[in-house]
């Protein structure tokens, strides 16, 4: 299986943001509710992109929020959605620019399937989490939209980008939602990672993988 690119190309960012707003808002709200139920105080969002997830979390919690993404172009959208209440850092998921034990919660949506080295991803999460801290991984974010709806909300240029991306996924994976790992794959990845996690939950439904871990 070929991996998708590890970052969203700059020319696709605006299209991705619009689709996220229209097709993904309810998803981000549901993830925010899951996060809020564990009452974090200092949270990191890996692959934060536009910051819509953090904007929903900040509606429910008073906590310090940091989002990282390797695509710098997302910054202006991140600032818009979070209203300056969260920090945006341009960084790589494999080399998080934070000290050990910096956060009590790490969340990530729509990232895991695109990584070439998922073991390193989990190792870095484990490193920056405090003992007893949680990580919630949702993969992939199900940003599905009909062509008719996309045509209404996107410019002609954005619509062509959307069609190209959609057709690519359907041709390569047989679905608009990109492939994701099976539960058994994740268990093997965690076993081969140098981490100290306890697996609390792993589930896969409607093409979305959910992983909840707690650091010992």
Walk me through what this model shows:
Helices cover 40% and strands 23% of the residues. It has a single domain (10-146, 181-215), classed as Vaccinia Virus protein VP39 (Rossmann fold), CATH 3.40.50. Helix 2 (25-36) packs across helix 3. Residues 1-5 have low confidence and may be disordered. Strand 1 (42-46), helix 3 and strand 2 (64-69) form a beta-alpha-beta unit. The chain has a seven-stranded mixed β-sheet. The relative contact order is 0.15. The protein has helices at 13-23, 25-36, 52-60, 75-82, 118-128, 147-153, 156-173, 183-192; strands at residues 42-46, 64-69, 87-90, 103-109, 129-139, 197-205, 208-215.
Provide the fold topology.
Blueprint: H1 13-23, H2 25-36, E1 42-46, H3 52-60, E2 64-69, H4 75-82, E3 87-90, E4 103-109, H5 118-128, E5 129-139, H6 147-153, H7 156-173, H8 183-192, E6 197-205, E7 208-215
Helix pairs in contact: 2-3
Features:
single chain, 216 residues, alpha/beta, Rossmann fold, 7-stranded mixed β-sheet, 8 helices, 7 strands, 40% helix, globular, disordered N terminus
Please provide the ordered H/E string of secondary-structure elements: HHEHEHEEHEHHHEE
**The CATH homology group name:** Vaccinia Virus protein VP39
- Kindly estimate the percentage of residues that lie in beta strands according to DSSP: 15-25%
Poorly predicted parts: 1-5
Helical/strand content category? alpha/beta
Give the helix proportion (percent range).
25-40%
CATH class: Alpha Beta
């Amino acid at each position: 299986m070929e991996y998708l690119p590890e970052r969203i190309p700059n020319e696709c960012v605006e299209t991705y943001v619009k689709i996220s707003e229209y097709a993904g808002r309810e998803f981000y709200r549901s993830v925010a509710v899951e996060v809020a139920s564990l009452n974090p105080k200092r949270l990191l969002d890996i692959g934060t992109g536009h910051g819509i997830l953090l904007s929903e979390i900040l509606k429910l919690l008073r906590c310090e929020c940091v989002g990282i993404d390797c695509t710098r172009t997302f910054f202006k959208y991140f600032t818009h959605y979070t209203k300056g209440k969260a920090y945006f850092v341009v960084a790589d998921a494999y080399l998080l620019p934070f000290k050990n034990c910096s956060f009590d919660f790490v969340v990530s949506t729509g990232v895991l399937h695109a990584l070439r080295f998922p073991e390193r991803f989990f190792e870095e999460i484990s490193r920056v989490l405090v003992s007893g801290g949680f990580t919630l991984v949702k993969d992939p974010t199900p940003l599905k939209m009909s062509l008719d709806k996309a045509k209404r909300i996107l410019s002609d240029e954005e619509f062509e980008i959307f069609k190209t991306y959609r057709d690519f996924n359907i041709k390569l994976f047989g679905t608009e939602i990109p492939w994701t790992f099976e539960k058994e794959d994740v268990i093997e990845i965690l076993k081969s990672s140098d981490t100290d996690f306890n697996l609390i939950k792993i589930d896969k439904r409607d093409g979305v993988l959910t992983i909840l871990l707690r650091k010992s």
